[in-house]
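Narrative of accomplishments. A recurring question from our advisory board has been how the design workflow behaves on a single, concrete structure rather than in aggregate. To address it, we present the structure tokens for one chain from the evaluation set, followed by the sequence designed for it. No filtering or post-editing was applied between the two.
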């Protein structure tokens, strides 16, 4: 069957190479001159200049450029993550090994890898191992490459959960418990730990890498005041490594390489935010982010089967001399995305109304990716929370907020349908049951309440000045977001 030439499309894809069509203006040196300035040139000067060849600097688009831009409509993440892949990781390992051969003790360095629990569950399912054995074997493999410290980011999630819960309690008291406002409209506190978000606007596919990026670029004036200022576990692990470990081990932050293994490609964008640099500006808090599938590529390239590695390594190196039960792995209650709603719900019920909640009852709405939970006491709804996963549900949430019809006080937002366990960077199985296996493995660990973690007080005292409300804690555990103004030419630079 032949197609009409008017409708046949070849090489159809949504890749747009970096060029002058990029929404971010890329100007050569000649454009910096004042266009309104009048110049007088004689004929000889004109002829001379016309014969000269001018070599322009090559154009490059970095992650920082894309994050600072008003938004690009390409979904080709290869444009953005060229320097965030397996090759760069192996290159970093090689450079680190070579550096250690020639540097003096005074300029010693450190290589740290932080592993997310979602990635660990995906790898465990791929190799048919338990999560405990997987973590230990991962540490063995990484140390065989030259990595010094392996971290489980669950420790960082303790701080993220506690800080988010305290933030909500303050938010609720200010806006609802002690408020004199008669408005019936509710403005929810929205988690900002997920950078991934795909949203279609109007008739064009406007791709904005990350929920946070989308909020800053598209609905900033409305959403940013509602976004939680608490960092994600990855970002907190970054500040821990480049601040606490740096000081404790007497190593300069720029001499520490910190790599994370995450379930989502958009975590690369989060790590590239300008806010996530060390205090002295010498390095990023997270130097490189690998997705779970990218790390699997490294294992395959090295012909390394995790089953063949020893499982005797300790799974979590917090580098504390008096660590309590460092060999134990644990999880948090609630969703596979971190259990933010679960913990905030119970914490707020106790702090605000002195109610002890043993379990949270979820009510699914139109689909499993939008679930609600209400705290009801004496036939009165005290607060109303929701899990909101997937771009369609988040789009509806934003519409309700804009219209002043939102009924939620707190929303756990994740861009991926089914949350982080189904992140775009996870290892894809050959059957539909693989996601269920990953979820079962993720929830197979014993759970611990963040405030009951044995090492919490130890780290708060040593790292954060003794309190989660300290100035140091504010810098290490929180961040700021700001609206990014869109360029006027944004909608006119599209090429299909």
């Amino acid at each position: 069957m032949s197609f009409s030439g008017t409708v046949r499309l070849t090489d159809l894809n949504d890749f747009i190479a970096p060029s002058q069509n990029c929404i971010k203006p890329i100007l050569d040196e000649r454009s910096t001159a004042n266009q309104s300035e009048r110049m007088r040139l004689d004929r000889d000067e004109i002829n001379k200049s016309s014969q000269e060849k001018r070599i322009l600097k090559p154009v490059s688009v970095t992650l920082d450029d894309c994050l600072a831009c008003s938004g690009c409509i390409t979904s080709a993440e290869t444009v953005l993550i060229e320097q965030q892949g397996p090759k760069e990781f192996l290159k970093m390992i090689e450079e680190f090994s070579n550096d250690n051969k020639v540097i003096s003790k005074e300029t010693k360095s450190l290589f740290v890898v932080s592993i997310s629990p979602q990635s660990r569950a995906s790898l465990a399912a791929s190799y048919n191992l338990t999560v405990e054995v997987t973590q230990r074997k991962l540490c063995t493999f990484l140390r065989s490459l030259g990595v010094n410290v392996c971290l489980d980011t669950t420790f960082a999630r303790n701080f993220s959960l506690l800080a988010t819960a305290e933030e909500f309690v303050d938010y609720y008291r200010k806006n609802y418990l002690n408020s004199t406002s008669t408005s019936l409209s509710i403005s929810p506190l929205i988690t900002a730990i997920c950078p991934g978000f795909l949203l279609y606007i109007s008739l064009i596919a406007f791709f904005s890498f990350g929920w946070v990026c989308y909020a800053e670029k598209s609905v900033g004036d409305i959403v940013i005041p509602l976004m939680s200022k608490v960092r994600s576990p990855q970002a907190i692990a970054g500040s821990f490594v480049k601040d606490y470990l740096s000081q404790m081990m007497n190593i300069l932050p720029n001499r520490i390489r910190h790599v994370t293994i995450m379930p989502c490609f958009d975590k690369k964008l989060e790590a590239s935010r300008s806010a996530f640099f060390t205090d002295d500006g010498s390095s990023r808090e997270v130097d490189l982010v690998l997705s779970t599938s990218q790390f699997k590529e490294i294992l395959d390239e090295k012909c390394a089967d995790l089953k063949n590695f020893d499982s005797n390594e300790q799974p979590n190196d917090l580098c504390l001399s008096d660590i309590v039960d460092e060999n134990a792995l644990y999880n948090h209650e609630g969703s596979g995305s971190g259990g933010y709603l679960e913990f905030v719900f119970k914490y707020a019920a106790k702090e605000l109304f002195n109610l002890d909640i043993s379990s949270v009852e979820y009510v699914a709405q139109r689909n499993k990716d939008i679930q609600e939970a209400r705290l009801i006491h004496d036939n009165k709804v005290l607060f109303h929370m929701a899990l909101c996963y997937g771009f369609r549900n988040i789009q509806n949430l934003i519409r309700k907020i804009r219209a002043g019809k939102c009924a939620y006080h707190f929303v756990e937002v994740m861009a991926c349908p089914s949350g982080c366990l189904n992140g775009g960077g996870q290892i894809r199985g050959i059957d539909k049951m693989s996601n269920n296996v990953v979820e079962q493995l993720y929830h197979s660990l014993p759970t611990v309440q963040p405030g009951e973690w044995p090492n919490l007080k130890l780290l708060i005292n040593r790292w954060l000045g003794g309190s989660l409300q300290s100035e140091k804690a504010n810098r290490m555990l929180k961040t700021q977001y700001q609206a990014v103004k869109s360029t006027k030419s944004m909608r006119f630079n599209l090429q299909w």
